[in-house]
Amino acid sequence: MPVGLFRVCLLVITAIVNHPLFFPKENGTVPENTEEIIQKMKEREESLRLEQLRLEQEIADQEATQKALEKAAVVVEESKEEKVRWDMWTALSMVIFLLIELWKQDFQEGNWQDTGGEEDDMAVLGKAFKGVALPDKAVLASFYEKRILGTTGDMARMREMVEGFADDLLEALRSVCNRDADMEVEDCMGVGSMYENWRVRKPFVCDLIVPFAPPEPYCFHCQTWCSGDSFPPDEQGYGTIKVCRADEDATGCICDKTKLGEDMLCLLHSQVNSTRPSSEMEDLLCFKNTQYLDADQVMKWFQIAVTKAWNRISHKYEFDLSFSLLDSPGALKIKFKSGKSIAFNLTPVVQYENSDVYFISHFPRSSLAADVPSSTHWFLTFAVYERRFIQLVSKTLPTNACHVSCLQILSFLHGKQCSLTGPSGLTNYHLKTVLLHLLQARPSQDWAPEKLEARLQDMLKFLEKCLHEKKLYHFFIGNGKVPAELGFPIIFQRAEPLNLFRPFVLRRDIYRKMVDTFHEMLRNMSALINEYTVHIPLAHTNGIRKEPL
Fold first, then answer.
1. pTM for the full predicted model
2. Which domain range does residue 420 map to?
3. Residue 540, beta-bridge partner list
4. Is 58 helix (H, G, I), strand (E, B) or coil?
5. How many Å apart are CA 496 and CA 105, to the nearest integer?
6. What is the pLDDT of residue 28?
7. What is the per-residue burial (b if ≥16 Cβ within 10 Å, else e) of 460-482?
């Protein structure tokens, strides 16, 4: 019974506690909160879905970007590999091209020195002038005898007169110069066509070179483009002259390059002579603030010295002396009262070491020194060795050899053509260089007097080949076959050959003018020679065959 009553009471209490109206405020909002929760859950679900879509889009974009970067990296890598392969092929092609060029130069240089007796090689040349005929032997002989041979006596008399006056002028120059401060002038030497007996065109002009040296205690230190110093291609054939003290190394004492400190003293140079004022170097005819000899300063000094010397001795002569060219140090002209005049060039030069190679400041009447890099660059002249080589070879040739005659005829024809069509880049020095090459290439018997016509053809063909290839090498520079009797400096024999036509490679207008002048000379050759030739009987000339080039 009590247990049953207890159960009934417990049931009633439980019913009362769980009745909905027992807690009206708390239980009344339950349905509303549920709807809000559901709504928020839906919104949250929607936002999560949108966020998921955004993240998926970003992941897709990142994957696309990554793929693009990987693709670009692959392209760059492939381009690098392709570039490397291309660079390898380019380098290989350049090496092959350089080897071919070197082989061609060696081959051509070898041919120039060794093709003396090969008529087939010479026959290949001159194809552009096939059909152009030289005058026959009788006309050539008459032309040479009447027009050229008669000038030899005039040249000899003029040389004698000019040399005597030049010696007197230089002696007076030494007397007016300060022996302790001015340059020391040596005896003059004759060079060029007048002293090699092949000048034919008037007016005759004697070329004399005058070596000079600095006063004591100074000396000249010469540097050439082939002495190991770095010279650009456009300065080949040039050199510089440094003025140094006799007790100083040319490269300078170490005291000029190193700070010795206050308590140390150079045993060679004191503080008095370790620094040279710029005025002292300018007095030594150097370029401003340098130790290098200035060609313009030398020209001014030499012109002033010659003027003073002439004023001292002018009373002894019955003629006037003046400068014919102001841009040349010693282009002088003697004017007689009768109206006649004689021109000659007295050019100061510097001797290279103990040889007969000289640094020359100016080339009057010549384009050899055109476009000089600067006034401290001096051109090297080998005129003394050229004269000696011709004299040496002449001793081995037959009597009355035709080598000088060939050069005289060709020089005359070229000069007449230039007077008709204007000057060209081709000079008499180029023509002489051609003769020097052929003198070395051909045997002595080929220069017999009766072979004048054949050798003249050879010179024209050789010159045509050089013009076509734009290559005419200096005879001495790079020529290992120079006779030992000349005592030629070995440094120039071992140097790279110097192309005298190199300036015309880039200057096409001058090159075209030079080639056109040469063509015109060939076409007008017969007319030019016949114009200055005594008429020969027609029956005599018709029996002689004209051999085409």
1. 0.70
2. 125-248+282-534
3. none
4. helix
5. 11
6. 45
7. bbbbbbbbeeebbbbbbbbbeeb
